[in-house]
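Instructor's aside before we start: the two examples that follow are unrelated to each other. I chose them only because their records fit on one page, so don't look for a connection. First example below.
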Amino acid sequence: MELSPRYELLASKIEEKIGDKLSRSLSSTGQLTYELPPTELVECCRFLRDADGCKFEMLMDLCGIDYLEYGETEWDTAEATNSGFSRGVQDRASDDGELRREGDAEYSPKGRFAVIYQLLSITCNHRIQLKTFCEDDEYPIVDSVISIWNCANWFEREAFDLFGILFRGHPDLRRILTDYGFIGHPFRKDFPLVGNVEMRYDPEKGRVIYEPVTIEPRTLVPRVIRTDNRYEPQLKGSKDA
């Protein structure tokens, strides 16, 4: 989707000053989005906060993304599947007539973990999105932006808690949503949906105890692939839809 004229003007100002440090990403919503290496993150964020015409005073949100198996998951049948699905894939008809999926050719993640920053300029009334990838999938880490936006404190703790992404320079990086002693990071794609442990009150011991989870994973409502006219891209907006 094309950007509006006011955002094209903003993009030209940003790319004139720091265009060598970041690259514009495609957006299906018309939002101005940039991808940048983690080594340039702090410098670019400080520029976006302070520069005339930018003035992104507020960090509205910060979140992690796990791209594990992005674009690789396939449908099992043309009717339903019990093993889930991926939205980052394309339709592909197989020789046996079943509907399969193949990787998204338009986008290939540069790593497993990424961090997204949503910025707002109250002064100029515009928004921007930044994305940076962690260089190491086994030890994901990026620089903290607390020195630029103090509200990043809890956002970064949340990304650490749920995704295991570390933020270099954070003054108090500890869990914020999960329980004390929790093992693992529940928003990672390889974390089991039912978890690893469960807790209950033991009347004999008079306290809460942890024990291995006893819930068996199961799918109550299978996911269905709908192939009627409502979902044909070429018919969107036409009278034949």
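Example two begins here.
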Amino acid sequence: MIQRHVRFGDIVCDIGTNKGSFILWLSRWCAGGRVVAFEPQPEFARRLVEMCRAMGLDNVRVEAKAVYSHSGDQELFVPAGHAPGASLTQKAAEALNFTTLTVPVVALDDYFDANDKVTLLKIDVEGAELGLLKGAERMLRQHAPLLVFECENRHLAPAVVGDVFSYLESLGYEGSFVRRNRLFPISQFDAAVHQCPDGEWFWKSKDYCNNFVFRKAPARS
């Protein structure tokens, strides 16, 4: 889906890049444009810079920053073993050993100029989705990038995934979720079923669904 959407010369964002699984493909698909990779963990950010240099990915800019609703500095919770990944919300690190880092954070509406037409946001931020999206409201209204993101109730509390969906729908987006490698309309998503918190490793269940795709709904005549 990302490959079909991204075009030569596009500006795309990989937010929560981690070890860079998407970087090579995004760099190729938007050749002539640029990839902005946001990764707040300093060690991972350094490795990403080295990887891009070694692979000649000249159109990738690595930003050692987190993305959220505002710009400034904030604590990042880094669980032992990075399982789950680092998060701006302590909920994502709950019941685990973690350390905290003070990292720079930026709102996308502050980072990008109004004329920067960003066409894709790939997001993996372990519970900070709603704040991130609210910090990109101008971008979402003006340029309507495709949104591909993970989102889970277990990371969001007291918010729920439905709050993220409702916010995006208020901006004219419509969504789908991935289940067993197929897309289904968001109207069929039921967190009680598709993110049922039963069992110690419930998020590894084959029916657990945490990947979502939102795109701007077509104008109705």
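The chain has one domain: 2-216.
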